[in-house]
Amino acid sequence: MIRVLLADDQPLLRRGFRAMLDAEDDIEVVAEAGNGEESLALIKEHLPDIALIDIQMPVMDGLEATRRIAADPALAGVHVVILTNYGFEEYVFNALRAGAGGFLVKDIEPEDFLHSVRVAARGDALLAPSVTKMLISRYVELPLNTEVGTGLQDLTNREREAVVLAAQGLSNNQIADRMVISPMTAKTHINRAMIKLHARDRAQLVVLAYESGLVAPRNR
Question: Sorted alphabetically, which CDD domains does this protein's record hold (predicted)?
């Protein structure tokens, strides 16, 4: 059973999302919150698998809530997915850097929304190729983070290759095809790389790949 917390300051939207989620046999909404501070308290209480958090909320916004969740070792099993009304704004990029596992636009189709929740529950990033392109374009403007790069020597050659492909937006199945290995082996390479680079999830691994210089935009 996938346990979900919903955090949005619009009750009508929360009810709509909850109705979709509660209709599924493998998903349970364990709590709802109307602001970031409330969501943080409820996450600590219920320890959901997924926290769907609106980026713009009163008292404490979704970005700060995400930052605090990612910084708390007791909440390491909570996957944060940011909800937004818009596209690839600056604060969405910052949310990924803060520890979010991905983001969903609120006008998403219901079947895509449910699929995304299940993807996030597996620990996979909700990073479509278009989102990866956004990350690339942002990192063109940023200096390399040499502190992050110091962990790269612990990666094996195959782990490095898998991380590079993940940073290009490839799924585990696509990485497996490219590396001529099984999807399970591809997932193992990614998981080991996350451990070695202290990445909270796949989304943060992609961010770290660019931040460390392991993957560099062509026009850096």
Answer: LuxR_C_like (cd06170), REC_NarL-like (cd17535)
